[in-house]
Structure formats: structure tokens, C-alpha cells
Automatic annotation (TrEMBL):
This is Kinesin-like protein. Keywords: ATP-binding, Coiled coil, Microtubule, Motor protein, Nucleotide-binding. Residues 1-132 form the Kinesin motor domain. Pfam families: FHA (PF00498), Kinesin (PF00225).
């Protein structure tokens, strides 16, 4: 589909002439290439009108591709002809593709592997298209004025002819001569107009572009000279070069350390001006002495500087490749070409990751570099990205007096409903004014971090409206509910139609137990009648359920021992392929809520995927609640009976000694999930489930052995030396006690049964 919009703008120029600017907008929705064969067999699956339409679409796209290829070749200096006339589509888009236009093309691609060929073709298409070079100029049309002038001239000539007309034949020659003269005059006027049009076509924009190109070339030459001068300065003088998480931004900011005193800070009088959290007006001084020693000292005690990860508290000598962190975000490497040990070919390459890992290590974050797995490498990378960002966020919060503190935490997989063993880095948000705590994912924190930096920039530049409403404040979390903890229930017994009644541990984000939850999962019939022991619902193998109807009831009875800072507590979970959560009612009691939440699940035809889910799946039960404010929390502590399972950490002030706090939190973070309270073993529930099944199977085997013993005792009393195999099979596969007694009664009280089996030569089992 092509939508063409033509715009015309008429105006009076500085000479008083009317001019018209014309623009044509082409909005094109290109059809994707049509697949004519199926992916599996390669057969043609499109016929009739659909086939002809698909062929036409593909032909048009092919012609467009040829035009784009030719235009790309032309842009590279080759003399090729662009085949615009091969299709209607390319003829319509001739001006948009290679004419006087600015063109934007959006390529839609798919990440699915089945669309690999289309995606690759589209990317190649786009790569060729971006090589096209168009030269744009304004379309100004002055012909309206010229046409009007010519019309006026024609009217004058007509009136002149009418006034001087001679009817006599004698004057015919003179009349013809006059007409010829007028025609010559008109022709001369037209030629003059053509000349003016030619001059107008050499538009002002072209001349302006030439001047711009000349000026740009001059500026580039000046920049080149400046860059060459600075390069020579860098090669011959000590300097500070920036490090950045983005490799494209490394070494983009370089400060030359000149002889004498070099003042560092955010004041305009500083020779090295830095901005950012915890950067003071006068932050540090670097002295370059006459004997080329480089000495660093801080201007005040509250000026934070880290040298190779250690805090700078007094004057220090800088050596080549030292890492310097000013404040919380300005990271530099010191390079000194005057150092005798300086050698660009052998010197260690200092990277942002290396510097941050050094800072993290000195602050107590011991990264696991012995584990060479991809998962551990990704975890280390995420931590190195989060650690400096959290420091910067805390510094911004302190300067803006937001009373919010951020901490790096490793979240246990159980808390996220995952079965892996690797934790995931998150950020804990502690609001000191309300006593509330929230857990942010890495992505959420980094998104908020951009807004925090923007707010701090407005504050730093003195804007009056730097503070924003509460709903827009990146330091605030307006979510009234938070995830208290999770519990995992292994469903394996249900695959054997065995009921589950368990007290499950509720784990918080550190993997510690913060409470228990009582859950029951009981098999039932389609009417909701729960199976009992005598109903003989047990199956030897889960595969026996394939194709049968399967029903069960999930009961979440209560929670015990939850932290007493929550209210409106509820539980929710997702069963099998459900898209919507099963959610209980909210209970206001914060410590020991009772839900009595019951829900039945019916599957009329058990599929293999359902059986696999019951055998190997885990039901992740989430406990949610709303955090009480600090005053409400204190009131709740006094009024409710507390069953303490895990104690909360004391509240911290947002005013803190940053380095000491980092060391403390770093050691806590990297010690895993053993800070406080009882640590939950993720394999505990699995072992309990397996023991439950083994116990059930063992009881079944004992029952069978007892039945066979009883059968043998009765047979010996009646002096029977042979027992039919059919009787043994029936007895082995019968688990109901009443059915067993019925078999015994039916067999040993009926002599005809044995005579019938003897007559039929039934297979028997001899008793020796």
C-alpha cells in the first residue's frame, strides 16, 4: 500500500515575488515476501488467485531489490543504470529512492528460527538500502510569477493588435511585419524568462551547501590540528583517562596533568572539572613537581577518593596504571609516559571491569573466579555492573536527603520459583522514613537509576523544580504489595494418586526460612469426593493415568510464623498450564493467617505433558502482603502474639560511612544465604516426597506378602497342595481388605472351584 501526500507552500520572497515550495510524502507499507512452499516437504501449498498474488508481490519486491542494489552501487562510484521502469512499485517510488528526498526504511525481522531465511534476506536488504546517498534540496517554484507576467504581456499585445488593425489589403504587408516584430519580442521575452528560470534552478540551497561544506572542512581541519596537538601532549605528559562500562566511551575524556598544582572538583575554577554524586567543589589536588613526581591529596575529609580500591586519606604518589575513583562514578586510569617503566607494548591494559572488580574486592565482595561456568561469569558481570550503580544511587539519595538506602543482594532461586542453584543479583530498597523494604530486579533498578541521575543533574544545576511528585519519584516504590516469600511443593506423589499433606518452609529472598505453610493435595473423583485408603486409587506407574480422567483438590490451610510487618496477606500459585493465578482471599492477621483456600482441578483426559508435570513438576506457592508503615508496624508488634521464625535486621539510616558500610554489606552478600536464621535446603522437600512414595510402596508390598502368607496358611489347613495362578494374580493386585477377604471366602469354601480348575487344567502353583 502506498499513500502519497503532496504539500505546497506559497509565499512572497524578499524581492516581492511569489514562490511555491513543493513536497511529496510517500508512506509505503511493503508486503513481506510470500512463502509458496511448506517448510517440511518443499511442496507448493499456494494455488489459484493466492498464488498469482504471491508471485506478483515477490516480483515487485525483487524489482525493488534490484533498484536498491543499483543505487547502492551508484553511491559507491560505479556507473550503473537504475531499473526504475521494471515495475509499477519502483516507478512510483523513483523520487523517494534516488531522487531529491530524505528516505527512512524500517526493516521488520523475526527472531524465530523458522524465519531465518527471511530475516537474513531482510537484513541484507536493509544493509544495501543504507548505502544509498541522496542529495536533498528545497523545491522552490517561481514559474507562477513568470506565467502571470507572460499572460499580461499577451493581453497587451492583443489589445495593440486590435487597436492598430488595418482592414485594407494594401496594409497587409505592414500588418504582417508588425506581427513578426511582436512575435520576435515575445520570443525574446520567453528566452529571457528561460534564462531567469535557469538561474533560479541553481538554487540558493546549493550555494549555501557549498559554503557549509567549506566551513565544515575548515572546522575539521582545525579539529584535526587540535587532536594532533593533544595527542602529542598525551604522549609526552602524565594524564588521567576515563574508564567506562561501554567500551565505545573508554578514553574519550583525557585530562593532562600539567606542571604545578591541578585542582579537581566541580567548581568552574578547577583545572580538572568533574561532575557527579559526592564530587565536592574542591575535591582533590594533583601536584606535578619539578622532578616529575605526581602527588595526589584530597581537599577535605569528606572527599571520597579510591586509589586501586583503597580509600585515600593522606598524600600519595601516583604510579603508571593506577586506578582512581572520584566520588562514586568518576573512574580514571592514571598514565605516565615519563615513568621509566612505561612501555605501551608491555603495559597492562586496565579495563573498567578490572578496576571495578578491584574496588569490589577491597570492599568485601569476593567474586567467584574459580568457577569458570558461563552462569558464574554472567553473575560476576551483573554484580560488577550493579555494585558501582548502587554506590552512586546511595550517594545521590544522601545528597537529595531522600532517606532511601540501596543494597546489593543475591536472591535465592527458590524465592523466584526456580530450581537452579545460582542466585540472581537484585537490589534491596530500604525506606528509612517508612520502614518499608522492597526488592527490585536489576533491570528495574537500572531504569530507575537513569531517572535518579536526571533528578540529580537538575538539582546540581540549580533548577528549582528538580523535585518531582511522589508518583514520579524514582526513589519511591508505590507498589502497596510485595512478595513475602515462596514455598515449593513437589507433586510427585500425585502422579501415583497419593495424597500430600505437608508443612512447607517459606523462604525469603536470601533462602532463609521465615515461616511455614500447611498444604494438602488430595486426589478425588470428578464430583469432588476425596479418595480414601479403601478406594484403591493408588497406581503402580504414572503411565496408568494416561488417557484417564484425573482430579485433585489443592488446599492451602494456613501460614504460621510470618514476619509481623505485613497485613492483607494472601497466597497465589499457577497450576500446570494455567494462565491465571489461583488466588486466596486477603487475611488481615499478619503473623498466623488462616486461609482454608480450596480449589479443585479436573482433567478429563490426562495427557503425557500432565503426567510429566505431576512426576517432575513443582508447585511454587507465593505468599504476598502489604507492608505496614513504621508506626503501624510498631502497633502490630504490641497487639499480636509473635511466633518468631526469623528476626528482621535493624533499620539503617541513609546517612552512613560509605566505605565501612560497603565492606560490611559486601561480606554479608558474598557469604551466601547463611546470614541469619535457618537456611532452607532446596532438596529437602524432594527427599520427603520420595520417602513418602517409598513408604507407600513398602506398605503395599507388605500387604501383598501378608495376603500370600494368609493364602498359604489357609491352603495348608485344608491340605491343598496347589493354588491356581489366577488366584495369586487376583490376590496380588487387590489392595482393598474387603476384596481380599471375599477372595479367601469364595475360594476355600467352594469345592466346585477347585474341581472346575482341575477340569480346565488351570496352571497351578505347588506348595512344598
Amino acid at each position: 500500500m502506498i499513500i502519497t501526500i503532496t504539500l505546497k507552500q506559497r509565499s512572497i520572497n524578499s524581492k516581492g515575488n511569489e514562490e511555491t515550495k513543493t513536497s511529496v510524502i510517500n508512506l509505503v507499507d511493503l508486503a513481506g515476501s510470500e512463502r509458496l512452499t511448506d517448510l517440511a516437504g518443499g511442496r507448493n501449498t499456494v494455488t489459484g488467485d493466492k498464488f498469482r498474488e504471491s508471485v506478483a508481490i515477490n516480483q515487485s519486491l525483487s524489482c525493488l531489490g534490484n533498484c536498491i542494489h543499483a543505487l547502492a552501487e551508484k553511491a559507491n562510484g560505479r556507473n550503473v543504470k537504475v531499473p526504475y521502469r521494471e515495475s509499477v512499485l519502483t516507478r512510483l517510488l523513483m523520487n523517494a529512492l534516488g531522487g531529491n528526498s530524505r528516505t527512512a526504511m524500517i526493516a521488520n525481522i523475526s527472531p524465530a528460527d523458522v524465519n531465518y531465511d527471511e530475516t537474513l534476506s531482510t537484513l541484507r536488504y536493509a544493509d544495501r538500502a543504507k548505502q544509498i546517498q541522496n542529495y536533498v534540496k528545497i523545491n522552490i517554484d517561481n514559474t507562477d510569477k513568470i506565467i502571470q507576467d507572460l499572460k499580461e504581456e499577451n493581453e497587451k499585445l492583443k489589445k495593440l493588435l486590435e487597436r492598430d488593425s488595418i482592414s485594407s489589403r494594401q496594409s497587409l504587408y505592414a500588418d504582417e511585419t508588425s506581427k513578426s516584430r511582436l512575435e520576435e519580442e515575445i520570443e525574446a521575452i520567453m528566452k529571457e524568462n528561460e534564462r531567469k528560470l535557469t538561474e533560479l534552478r541553481e538554487s540558493y540551497e546549493d550555494r549555501l551547501n557549498e559554503e557549509k561544506q567549506l566551513k565544515l572542512q575548515q572546522e575539521n581541519d582545525e579539529k584535526q590540528i587540535q587532536m594532533e596537538t593533544k595527542r602529542k601532549e598525551i604522549e609526552t605528559n602524565p594524564n588521567l583517562s576515563n574508564l567506562n562500562f561501554d567500551e565505545q566511551l573508554v578514553d574519550k575524556i583525557i585530562f593532562i596533568i600539567r606542571s604545578g598544582s591541578n585542582l579537581i572538583g566541580k567548581s568552574e575554577e578547577c583545572q580538572i572539572q568533574l561532575m557527579g554524586p559526592m564530587i565536592q567543589d574542591h575535591h582533590a589536588i594533583i601536584n606535578r613537581t619539578k622532578n616529575e613526581k605526581i602527588i595526589l591529596e584530597r581537599c577535605d575529609d569528606d572527599c571520597r577518593i579510591l586509589l586501586n580500591g583503597d580509600a585515600v586519606t593522606h598524600k600519595v604518589n601516583l604510579t603508571h596504571n593506577d586506578r582512581l575513583l572520584f566520588g562514586t562514578s568518576q573512574l580514571f586510569v592514571f598514565r605516565n609516559p615519563l615513568d621509566p617503566n612505561f612501555d605501551t607494548t608491555k603495559s597492562t591494559i586496565v579495563t573498567y571491569e578490572l578496576a571495578q572488580e578491584e574496588i569490589a574486592s577491597k570492599a568485601g565482595y569476593k567474586l567467584n573466579n574459580e568457577d569458570n561456568s558461563i552462569e558464574q561469569a554472567l553473575l560476576n558481570k551483573e554484580l560488577l555492573e550493579l555494585i558501582p550503580a548502587v554506590e552512586e544511587a546511595n550517594a545521590i539519595s544522601e545528597e537529595l536527603e531522600k532517606m532511601v538506602h540501596f543494597e546489593n543482594v543475591l536472591v535465592a532461586p527458590l524465592f523466584l520459583g526456580k530450581t537452579g542453584r545460582k542466585p540472581e543479583p537484585h537490589v534491596q530498597v530500604i525506606n528509612s522514613s517508612t520502614g518499608q523494604e522492597f526488592l527490585w530486579s536489576k533491570d528495574k533498578f537500572l531504569d530507575r537509576m537513569f531517572l535518579m541521575k536526571q533528578m540529580y543533574h537538575c538539582y546540581e544545576t540549580g533548577e528549582e523544580q528538580w523535585d518531582v511528585p511522589l508518583e514520579q519519584d524514582p526513589f519511591e516504590d508505590l507498589e502497596s504489595e510485595c512478595l513475602i516469600g515462596t514455598a515449593q511443593l513437589y507433586l510427585q506423589p500425585l502422579a501415583y494418586m497419593v495424597e500430600i499433606k505437608e508443612h512447607l518452609s517459606i523462604s525469603d529472598y536470601t533462602g532463609q526460612e521465615i515461616g511455614v505453610i500447611y498444604v494438602e493435595v488430595i486426589p478425588c473423583d470428578q464430583n469432588g469426593n476425596e479418595y480414601e485408603e479403601q478406594d484403591n486409587a493408588y497406581v503402580e506407574s504414572p503411565q496408568e493415568l494416561l488417557g484417564r480422567s484425573v482430579s485433585f483438590v489443592v488446599k492451602i490451610i494456613n501460614c504460621r510464623g510470618l514476619p509481623n510487618k505485613f497485613t492483607e496477606i494472601y497466597v497465589k500459585y499457577l497450576m500446570f498450564i494455567d494462565e491465571n493465578y489461583s488466588i486466596s482471599e486477603k487475611i488481615s492477621i499478619s503473623i498466623n493467617p488462616t486461609f482454608n483456600f480450596r480449589k479443585r482441578f479436573d482433567y478429563s483426559h490426562a495427557t503425557q505433558s500432565l503426567i510429566d508435570f505431576l512426576k517432575e513438576g513443582i508447585l511454587n506457592i507465593e505468599v504476598w502482603g502489604r507492608q505496614l508503615l513504621q508506626s503501624s508496624f510498631n502497633s502490630t508488634v504490641e497487639n499480636e502474639q509473635s511466633i518468631s521464625v526469623a528476626t528482621a535486621n535493624p533499620e539503617q539510616s541513609s546517612k552512613f560511612s560509605l566505605q565501612d558500610e560497603l565492606e560490611k554489606r559486601g561480606s554479608e552478600l558474598m557469604n551466601g544465604f547463611k546470614m541469619n536464621g535457618r537456611v532452607i535446603d532446596p532438596n529437602k522437600q524432594s527427599v520427603i516426597v520420595e520417602l513418602l512414595l517409598l513408604k507407600k510402596q513398602q506398605a503395599r508390598m507388605h500387604q501383598r506378602i501378608d495376603n500370600i502368607k494368609k493364602l498359604i496358611e489357609i491352603a495348608e489347613k485344608q491340605r491343598r497342595k496347589m493354588i491356581p495362578i489366577d488366584i495369586l494374580k487376583e490376590l496380588i493386585f487387590t489392595t482393598n481388605a474387603e476384596s481380599v477377604d471375599e477372595i479367601f471366602t469364595r475360594i476355600f469354601s467352594d469345592e466346585q472351584y477347585y474341581r472346575m480348575n482341575d477340569a480346565n487344567n488351570s496352571t497351578t502353583c505347588n506348595i512344598n
